[in-house]
Design brief:
Layout (H helix, E strand, L loop, with lengths): L4 H16 L3 H5 L2 E8 L4 E4 L2 H17 L4 E11 L4 E11 L5 E13 L5 E8 L2 H12 L7
Parallel strand pairs: 1-6
Antiparallel strand pairs: 1-2, 3-4, 4-5, 5-6
Amino acid sequence: MTTTRDEIEAFLVEYQDSLSAFDAERSVAQWGTPGMIINDAFAGTLSSPEEMAAGLKQSYPFYQSLGLASVDHTLLEQADLTARLTRIHVRWHFYDGEGTKLTDGDYEYLLRRDDDGKLKVYVAVAIDEMEKLTALAVEKGIAMPTA
């Protein structure tokens, strides 16, 4: 079974809406466990929805201090790897409360169709998030979180 572009778009719209609402539990519902996040500076696995939600909630004050009010996406690439695994490349667009674009950032995700038929993220690779968020924070005079 392949994953359709419509399924991926519906998945991403739900994810962006949960991120825009700063709703950690709703965001975490898009993830399977264990979930892995990796970038040039960090590699870690989160083993429970509670752990994932706590991590997201810790990041919210920083994103809010940057003025983040909404998130949108562009699906750049999709590749079905197996009947249940799909890799996607997504560009997230971050906007302030007036709809002005703050920045964007690319991610690669490995999605798996679980036994219940739902798509879940199991691996997220942050490609350029740190450098773009750092540049935005410097522009706004906001200190980057240390942990």
